[in-house]
Design brief:
This protein has three helices and three strands. By secondary structure, it is α+β, with helices and mostly antiparallel strands.
Length: 137
């Protein structure tokens, strides 16, 4: 298992890479989508989710009022990412809903999941469904 120092070094390298590509690391949340793509003109770009800000640089609140508003941004790839970096994209909503429907169907076959043991089993089934579909929880 990587040490705290390893994680700290990677975080610093990741932030340095974002900065080198003119992305403010403070605008990129921990679970933000960040991946490489090719624009229509052939330019390689970084596509990422960032905190939405107003003209004064203040972060906007999301529609539910319980977090930061997120916007999708694109910027040219100026510096290649670190070797260990892996792109991250959350599964689309439809894909997550399909997994949830499958889990609910399994739970319905077994009856109501009221006890602690049944809920733990349901969580295990959900984790297995995520793994089977190649999704990240």
């Amino acid at each position: 298992m990587p040490s705290h120092k390893d994680y700290s070094e990677r975080r610093e390298a990741y932030c340095a890479w974002l900065t080198a590509n003119h992305i403010d690391p403070g605008d990129v949340l921990l679970d933000a989508d960040v991946y490489l793509d090719t624009a229509s003109d052939g330019t390689r770009v970084i596509v990422y989710e960032a905190c939405a800000k107003d003209a004064q640089g203040r972060k906007h609140v999301n529609e539910r009022g319980d977090g930061v508003a997120i916007e999708c941004r694109t910027t040219p790839l100026l510096v290649e990412p670190p070797d260990w970096w892996e792109p991250y994209r959350k599964p689309p909503r439809d894909q997550l809903l399909a997994v949830l429907d499958r889990v609910k169907a399994l739970a319905d076959e077994e009856g109501e999941a009221n006890t602690y043991i049944e809920r733990a089993r349901l969580r295990a089934v959900l984790n297995l469904a995520y793994e089977t579909e190649g999704l990240k929880p």
